[in-house]
Amino acid sequence: MKTLSVDVAIVGAGSGGLSAYSMVKRKTDRFVVINEGLHGTTCARVGCMPSKVLIQVANDYYRRKVFASEGILGAEALSVDQAEVMKFVRKLRDRFVRGVMHTVDEIGERNISGRAEFLEPNVLKVNDQRIEAKKIILATGSTPIIPDSLANHQNEVLTSDSIFEQERFSKKIAVLGTGVIGLELGQALSRLGIEVKLLGRSKRLSGLQDPKINDYAIIALSKELDITFSENWSVERLKDGRYRFLDEKKFEVDQVLCAIGRRPNVYGIGLEKLGIALDQDGIPKFNSETMQLEGLPIFIAGDVTNELPILHEASDEGKIAGLNAVSDSVEAFKRRTPLQITFCDPNIAIVGKRFKDLSGTPFETGEVTFEGQGRSIVKSKEMGLLHVYGEKRTGKLLGAEIMGPDAEHLAHLLSWVIQRELSCFEVLRLPFYHPVVEEGLRTAIRDLAKKIDPVKASFEMDPV
Ligand SMILES: Cc1cc2nc3c(=O)[nH]c(=O)nc-3n(C[C@H](O)[C@H](O)[C@H](O)COP(=O)(O)OP(=O)(O)OC[C@H]3O[C@@H](n4cnc5c(N)ncnc54)[C@H](O)[C@@H]3O)c2cc1C
């Protein structure tokens, strides 16, 4: 077995691994980036980006439903050419992948193609090569989970890994999972005219924890989507290739899209040889501010951590891991305010502390409904509910759960003011233009401010 000695070995050339590379290359050229399978990252190839293209097209087409009421005629003549839609999705996908490939090309001969496996804390095996590294960064990402009941058909069922390669879709599709990916892709397929059965186990959408927001979102989206929650469904493959789902009701579909979650890629990579404790999912204990595995010259970043499976967090973690891997001492970094957006329509977003994280904290809730909200009426998007949570004593904003129009933008504003530790009173002194959806957010913050201190809430400007 050939041996290669380097300062740093990065395992996985996804968003986490490539961010780590951007830090490592500043200090040393004695590194390698090991990647199994296709380059281009999950985000650009099969994740964030192609899914957003599909959603955009689906929403553009769905918009035709309000045309007649606005006096725009002829919408009934519009139709979808699925093959052309998917061609368009792949065209933009390829553009995003090309962007990533510049970085991969820059790494050049330091790229190693193959599956890495730990032999010791400082030693990896890739193909027939032994790689000895002073530091190792583990950024192996995650893989879609296929339920056991469909394991025999894993090559036929769709996942986010295969959906964007489809030329056309069958008439009727079951989408398993009402989390972020199931909801985004399920609604997009439905808006493109496919008969979608969305099947969830727990009565929850996109990880919402606030019962009122979650219930509202289920009722609101059920007006458009066929959503069933069942703990006990089972599935069988029929002779004609279709799938029969059984719960209280029985239904049959032509295709299945599995979106029940993603499994961190930790299996078969030899973590058990490192002599450290692994949790029930096989994830090693690590410090989320340094990204270091306890007591080892190993750092971890991205979806493989099983903590914050979103792009900007993978990127941050890669940078922390990369910087620490090439520094003399390990530094801790403050993490950003949590922010999770589901690009269904209306958007769902969770910011800062979730409702369930607030138990034990004295807090008040400010509320707004987007039914009747000025700009939402103009947009024909009069649907949504927002809860913003504030510390009872000070009014400091803590978190929010939202289903509503433009929640992707409202969630950003909220995450910024939460990270800046502003109170509801301070936020009310910031500008709000008219007429914008953000005025709805102001209504919720006003509601919160009144509950905390009605006198302080009564005037929203500071004296000079
Ligand atoms: C459909 C979908 C939509 C999404 N939408 C969004 C969104 O809108 N916004 C958002 O923030 N996030 C979104 N995400 C999540 C986001 O894409 C991920 O959090 C991010 O891409 C994770 O990056 P990563 O570096 O951890 O993993 P990856 O990009 O998957 O990289 C891991 C790499 O490691 C390689 N690898 C695995 N095992 C080994 C091994 N043993 N040896 C060598 N190489 C190995 C893999 O092949 C892969 O190339 C979405 C994800 C999906 C699937």
Textual characterization of the structure:
- By secondary structure, the chain is an alpha/beta fold.
- The chain has 13 helices and 21 strands.
- The protein has helices at 15-24, 42-46, 48-62, 64-70, 82-107, 180-191, 211-222, 311-325, 374-378, 407-419, 424-427, 438-452, 454-457; strands at 2-11, 31-35, 111-113, 116-120, 123-126, 129-138, 142-144, 172-176, 195-200, 226-229, 234-237, 243-246, 250-253, 255-258, 262-264, 298-300, 339-342, 347-352, 363-369, 385-391, 397-404.
- The strands form 5 sheets. Strands 1, 2, 3, 4, 5, 6 and 16 form a 7-stranded mixed beta sheet that branches. Strands 17-18-21-20-19 form a 5-stranded antiparallel beta sheet, with helices on both faces. The protein has a 4-stranded parallel beta sheet with strand order 10-9-8-14, with helices on one face.
- It is globular and about 70 Å long.
- The N and C termini lie far apart (74 Å).
- 43% of the residues are buried.
- The model has no long low-confidence stretch (mean pLDDT 97).
- The protein binds flavin-adenine dinucleotide (FAD).
- Flavin-adenine dinucleotide (FAD) binds next to helix 1, strand 2, helix 2, helix 3 and helix 8.
- Flavin-adenine dinucleotide binds next to helix 1, strand 2, helix 2, helix 3 and helix 8.
Shape: globular
Helix content estimate: 25-40%
Number of strands: 21
Q: Measure the end-to-end span.
A: 74 Å
How many distinct helices? 13
What percent of residues are in strands? 15-25%
Bound molecules: flavin-adenine dinucleotide
Largest sheet: 7 strands, mixed
Name the average pLDDT.
97
| Low-pLDDT windows of residues | none
Computed CA radius of gyration, to the nearest angstrom: 24 Å
Oligomeric description of these chains: single chain
Judged by helices, strands and strand pairing, the structural class is alpha/beta
